[in-house]
Amino acid sequence: MNPFSSGTRLRDMIRAIRTCKTAAEERAVVRKECAAIRASVSENDQDYRHRNLAKLMFIHMLGYPTHFGQMECLKLIASSGFPEKRIGYLGLMLLLDERQEVLMLVTNSLKQDLNHSNQYIVGLALCALGNICSAEMARDLAPEVERLLQSRDQNIRKKAALCSIRIIRKVPDLAENFMGPAAALLKEKHHGVLITGIQLCTELCKASAEALDYLRKYTEGLVRVLKDVMSSPYAPEYDISGITDPFLQIRMLRLLRMLGHGDPDSSDCMNDILAQVAAKTESNKNAGNAILYECVATIMGIEATSGLRVLAINILGRFLSNRDNNIRYVALNMLMRAVSVDTQAVQRHRTTILECVKDSDASIRKRALELVFVLVNENNVKPLTKELIEYLEVSDPEFKADLTDKICSIVEKFSLDKLWFTDQMLKVLSEAGNYVKDEVWHALIIVISNAPDLHGYTVRSLYRALQSSGEQEILVRVAVWCIGEYGNLLVNSIGVLEGEEPMTVTESDAIDVVESALQCHTSDVTTRAMSLIALLKLSSRFPHCSQRIREIVFQQKGNLILELQQRSIEFNSIILKHDNIKSALVEPMPVLDEATYAGKRAGSAPATASLEKTGKPTGPATGLNLPNGVAKSAPAAPLIDLLDLSSDDAPAAASSTGDFLNDLLGGGLTTNLSISGVNQVPTGSADILMDLLSIETTPQNNQSMPNVMSTTIDNLPSVSPLDSLSLNSSPALSTQTAEGSVTGFLKETAGPTGPTKSMAGPAPVVDLLDDLSSNSPMPAQNPTYPSIVAFQSNNLKIMFSFSKLPEEPQVTEIQATFTNLSPHVYTDFIFQAAVPKFIQLHLDPASSNILPGGGIGSIRQSLTITNSQHGQKALAMRIRIAYKVNNQDVLEQGQINNFPSGL
To answer: pLDDT above 90 covers what percent of the chain?
Structure first.
């Protein structure tokens, strides 16, 4: 016989495929076999149709396409013989699914077979319908299935019940048709029919609230059935490990849980039987444990009595002592749900749960830790925290992170007093400081700063902890911060608490600790930067050690990390040249409000003033009054937020307010703002003043124009004036750019540090603190200042010229000259500027709003700046220029930081 013909037996084809040594050989065999099957199909070969379909099913299971044989399934189903129908229905279930349109052709055959006199053919049809039934088929064939639920044959009733489940899932509206027949199945004696009937009732309860109310009337009958199954004599066909039909018992318990949920009357009916199941079921076999677990879930899901709930939780407690990890895990899961029902009963098993935290299985440890976290309250927080911290010492490294996080959360949430909170956090930092998150030690520092009575005790405790746990990075940071703030309390033994162990620490010892943190090769940049700040503070706290501190700080001047190098140079200059103001610069950090920090940590930032709060109109505007005498309608794309220099948003629609004064600083935030001759200081009911140069303020309503070119003067992302930079509150004293440029409040150093390169072009480079020094030279009576290139791009150049009156040193007159470097003419030219709140800015009208191209002509505009903190804060300005090129809106923006000194 040809091995590739319709007459080939299935076993021969399987043998040929299995003898293939490569995938290519297998594909060749399958391809030839499929070709033979296609030829047989085209010839309408009825003798081998069932054999061909069997081969197709095997080929389908190998993953090859077999769609060409779908019609063969329908032909076999339509045949009269049982063997052909069996192969046809098997192929139908395997080769097709409910999404195939071919199924519409089989509905009539299914209907005929459901009414067939042969019970086996009826069974085939029910089995196929239960596997591939679609919503349309369910509606068409539901009456036949409902009728078969009352058949005399047990197998037919069982298969009809399973088929009904599929129909209800596809069409929940048909649930009411099956309520009566499903309830009748609960009286069956045959366990196979009974378990399918219970499953059908469960599905009805899920699909319809009406069916749930209807089936609650049969609760007592279901309880009797469960009791009979429990007390039935030994039956070999149902016995598993000495328990009669545990599968049936579990199904009944699940149905009882649904019937008793939220219904006290139904719950009362089943309380006794649940107690019997919990008490009489043996727990030394998996079958018994499965029943007990389901019984506990049922007790927790219904309106059970308190005694029954205690019994259920005690069963879970026994599960926790089981040697099987799976049983312990499901017990912990169930206890997590039981905590909300009866916390006190779960608390009795706290010791066992704590032991599970120390289990070798990672899943059990994690789940037990979550349960312990839920069980913590004000009464047991101390012993539970003590146990967890003790285990933290010996826990696995991969588990320390989760354990540390939970302990910190428990201590923060249930801290009894600040002394206890500080002690527990120091223990955590000593054992697992490297796993503590940043927000945790930030919160610890805030708590320490708010407890003045504990400053001395805390700094001494941290000093002791460093002696034994110096490798914990976060502990070192907190200790360095506290020594910098409260070093005098450490040295002078101030604030000693009762029972505290006395210790003697000299100024040199305190500096040694900070120096070791600075020079440790494992310390990161943040720790070293905080160490430098601490040394700067200690130079004021310990005047006799100022020279040694300066030498330690000066050693970092050649550090490869630019941040540390700059700090070293700037701090060295402060210690060497500005001793008269050093104590004011490094005075103790102000106390931070704990509630405010907690709100920020939770993500609740202060609300930004909206247009409604500032009293600005919220309706659409008809036009904009632009400066330079130009009146035009609202632009298609308003100017982007002046403060958002990093915005790359796509062009947005026009603002609904139609007033770009509201939009300039973003969403109602107020600042001193002048636009082309309009000196305007907006105010509102919500007095919200924003520092223009604050890098932490995020503007709102950022919008951009079609063509946006952004240039930042000196390649600096932001300006940090000295008043906004607290040496004793922030570990970051400067901004480092991607190009390696460095800005800070010191541009020139003295002494052994040597000069540094200025990035400000023609502007003179001086120490901004020189004005505060007593030995600084007095400014000239009629100072002259060089002109600067305030802004320059490929298309535009802006020059600033300065003049001042001797009697008004805080007032500066600026003459701005705008030059067009491109060959195109700029129209509708608008210049806008924004300054910090301590500066007042007045802009006179520009000489024109048309800027010729090629650098031939220019536009001039005068600016008057009044610096209310002259000599203390330097000038800074952000600008943007809007114009049109060939009727296309263009926007350029920048930041000016290179103003000459003395302005």
So the answer is: 40
